[in-house]
Design goal:
About 45% of the residues lie in helices and about 15% in strands. By secondary structure, the protein is α/β, with parallel strands linked by helices. The strands form 2 sheets. An 8-stranded mixed beta sheet has the order 9-8-7-10-11-14-13-12, with helices on both faces. Strands 3-2-1-4-5-6-15 form a 7-stranded parallel beta sheet, with helices on both faces. Strand 5 (about 145-150), helix 8 (about 150-165) and strand 6 form a beta-alpha-beta unit. The protein is globular. It starts with 10 loop residues before the first helix and ends in a 7-residue tail after the last helix. Bound molecules: nicotinamide-adenine-dinucleotide (NAD). Nicotinamide-adenine-dinucleotide binds near residues 152, 216, 217 and 348.
């Protein structure tokens, strides 16, 4: 078996951590038991491009239980947990091509190794593999059963492909399932982003001004949790509806130019490019700390900052100081501008990934069940599947809820009764 990982000797530690995460993933565990019996993915060749974390390992085990032959590659050069990669290879015989800190060249080489295996299904996170397939493997793209997409940025790219008329297969928008983005993007990114900032810097957040750039699902989570740690949270937005929502949630909303002058911390979660730009750095306070938790490392204009500064000085792991050439101040960048929750911490806790990856496993099964029947566009899993995942999660949490009575069902479907 071929693989490219940091050190196979890390497998024992990785296995312990994978099994620890599995305890918080009961829904995926139930799916794994069913897959074991029914083998819905028998004979399917899969490429999964994901953050190689303990939770992803449990997804890979589930796909394997279903009969799939998978290759795993990293969806970000800094997000791989090397012990997890080692355990997947040593304990589950799953080929992994991912090393924490790999260069962009290595990252792209791994994408090509994965695509050379001619997969039937691609599980993607950010749509890099799908985009490479469309550009460089057009003949094979025609034969793909379908793809699934984990994150908001990947869905934006898939919708752009659909609009441009270049989609050659159906894609399941896993991110858009309610049991994914309501929980993973909000509570997962909320907790793990703060975890990443704290692990990297060990700086107190209480009483500091923390600017959240973008008040979407991730931004809401980061803002909520930063407030819980005592930070004065400031939100910047470009969407007036989201900005009003942030105001009514009790946050201060400012333009980026005004926020730049007062922020002690900045967290970008927009999925957009250069939302912190050259002119914003000029306005920042000395020692301002800047990081990103959006998918790609282009939210902060690091090239502009590098041009304005002396070569960056490493202060701690994942902490670099950029001192301005004019001597006026320095700005601190965390995790090279890559997702800080995966670079400096461990990504989302297993309990939210349980539902995200239940959606991934069931979307993969759905693609196989509906092979050749789906249009070449972006699809949502049926809402009943979303509800089933939430129902299983509640059951695992030991929480019972009420059911509609026949009287209620009749009333909700009628129009005659009023005042
Ligand atoms: N770190 C993680 O583990 C993790 C998890 C889930 C999603 N993501 C990524 O995080 C990013 C955000 O995802 P989301 O689900 O919150 O998306 P979203 O669409 O719900 O929210 C993005 C928000 O950013 C705002 N925005 C866009 N440009 C802006 C600008 N220049 N200034 C201020 N606000 C701006 C938009 O108006 C929107 O409200 C995406 O790249 C997504 O892929 C990361």
């Amino acid at each position: 078996m071929q693989y490219d990982i940091k050190d196979i000797n890390l497998a024992e530690q990785g296995k312990q951590r994978i099994e620890w995460a599995a305890r918080e993933m009961p829904v995926l565990g139930l799916i794994r038991e069913r897959f074991e019996q029914e083998k819905p993915l028998d004979g399917i060749k899969l490429v999964a491009c994901a953050h190689i974390t303990t939770e992803t390992a449990n997804l890979a085990r589930t796909l394997q239980a279903g009969g799939a032959e998978s290759i795993l590659i990293a969806s970000n050069p800094l997000s791989t947990q090397d012990d997890v990669a080692a355990s997947l290879v040593a304990d589950w015989n799953i080929p992994v091509f991912a090393i924490k800190g790999e260069s962009t060249e290595t990252y792209l080489r791994h994408v090509h190794i994965a695509l050379d295996s001619k997969p039937d299904i691609i599980i993607d996170d950010g749509s890099d593999v799908v985009a490479t397939m469309l550009k460089e493997y057009p003949d094979h793209a025609e034969k793909i059963i379908g793809t699934t997409e984990e994150t908001t940025t990947g869905i934006v790219r898939l919708e752009a492909m659909e609009k441009a008329g270049v989609m050659k297969f159906p894609s399941m928008a896993v991110n858009d399932a309610q049991t994914k983005h309501f929980f993973d993007n909000r509570y997962g990114t909320g907790q793990s982003t703060l975890d990443g900032i704290i692990r990297a810097t060990n700086v107190l957040l209480a009483g500091k001004n923390l600017v959240v750039v973008g008040y979407g699902w991730c931004g809401k989570g980061v803002a909520m949790r930063a407030r819980g740690l005592g930070a004065n949270v400031i939100v910047t937005e470009v969407d007036p509806i989201k900005a009003v929502e942030a105001v009514m949630d009790g946050f201060r909303v400012l333009s980026m130019n005004d926020a730049a002058k007062v922020g002690d911390f900045f967290v970008t979660v927009t999925g957009n490019r250069h939302v912190i730009d050259r002119d914003h750095f000029k306005l920042m306070k000395n020692g301002a700390i800047v990081c990103n938790s959006g998918h790609f490392d282009l939210e902060i204009n690091l090239e502009a900052l590098a041009e304005m500064s002396e070569p960056a000085a490493k202060r701690r792991p994942f902490v670099e100081e950029y001192s301005f050439k004019d001597g006026s101040k320095s700005v601190i960048v965390l995790g090279e501008g890559r997702l800080i929750n995966l670079a400096a911490a461990e990504g989302h806790p297993a309990s939210v990934m349980d539902m995200s990856f239940a959606n991934q496993a069931l979307s993969t099964e759905y693609l196989v069940q509906n092979r050749g029947k789906l249009e070449n566009k972006v699809h949502l899993l049926p809402v009943e599947v979303d509800q089933e995942i939430a129902g299983l999660k509640l059951e695992a949490l030991g929480i019972a809820i009420d059911e509609l009575t026949p009287e209620m069902i009749e009333y909700m479907g009628s129009w005659e009764t009023g005042t």
